[in-house]
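Fold it.
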Amino acid sequence: MACSAKKTFLLSFLFLIAAGTVHSLDYSDINTALSKITYFDSSKNEGTTSFRSLLIPIGGRAESLGSAYTGLCDDAGYINYNAAASCILNDTQASAYHNSWIADSKLDTLVFTTRINNLGFGFQAGCLYMPFTEYNLFGERVNTSYYSESNFAANVSYNFLAGYDFKGFALGATVKSAFRSVPSYTDNDTDAIKSFSGLAQSGVGIMADIGMMLQFNFLKFFASRTPNVRIGFSAQNLGAAFTGFGSKSGLKLDDPLPTVFAAGLSCQFLPIITATLDIKQPVNLFEPKKYQMFSVGAGVILAFTKNISLLTGLEIKGGNPRFSTGAELQLSNARINFNYTLDLTTSLSPVNRMSISAKILLGDRGRAVRQQKIDELYLKGLEYYANSQWELAIEQWEEVLKLNKRYDPAILGIESARSQIEMYERVRNSMFFEE
């Protein structure tokens, strides 16, 4: 009993010491420790590009995964990550995103995307806006307006050589334009707003994205027609920006755009678990030798049911870890995503934001019905083949190829049926002899 009491006292004493240490711990020390863990080699060239709003996640599924989306891109958010993905989406989608960013700024985005067979295309319109308030020397508010950066995008992609076994090689491009609107400011002497004074600082950007995507099966231990592995590559914001509207010197080349090269991988290990990984490298197209920090992101999707999924992600760039988590609700013709993101940039004070997205699923342009018809014709052909009715089997499978010319099982079936007919003819002819 005495020994037990001594152990209890010792454990209690150690607990009190630990509790006192935690209570007296300076949170700045914790922040310093976290910074050292996640700090690699920050660059003095960070933040030197224009139209930084192009780097802000629009929200939704992609942000829930820590922006590790280049190698997945299975919804309308692809248009900001991989231009090749519109031709492999299952549904036509009309999507709306709202992201409450920092410093009372908001980012609203609309996306529409659709697909016709192996050809996909999409459109996007987005706007980042934040309050602009001006005070005079006496602290009186003399001007209220908004600073904004708007962007517009048009995408097209095509999935080459897509078939039953090989799922194709998708290539795509997105043409984008952006406009920076700086509000007019006041005269220091009169407090009157100077018309078009902000125009000289406003700017326009012209750019393009290119992307590619591969799909295939690897270490797949469950039945599904959807490939379980995707690999994607993309180059974003290739172009230039200009400023100086209305100035006497005319338009001039602005700071470089935030060009990024990215590679991504996604793997569906089980029907309920999908993991993603991204590596992104910013590049200064004007001065490529200027170093900028790369970033790494990873995400996981847990599909608990067909209607509810949990998503979580992490992105690290130098001393800036970013954590995100989200929930996705699948309805009959809609999909809703709620996302929360926490940035630990300079302190442990939570720099957090919320985003929400809603997608209306407008159908698949009859692809599911066509696939059902293909399945019925193929199975009927197998039935004829099993009964040695090879000509009828060939007829069924030729109908399949009219609907999908790269349906490999039907192609192989026709070859096998013709071989059977030739063999039967040879055997029958060998039974007859000339007199």
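The first strand starts at residue 93 and ends at 100.
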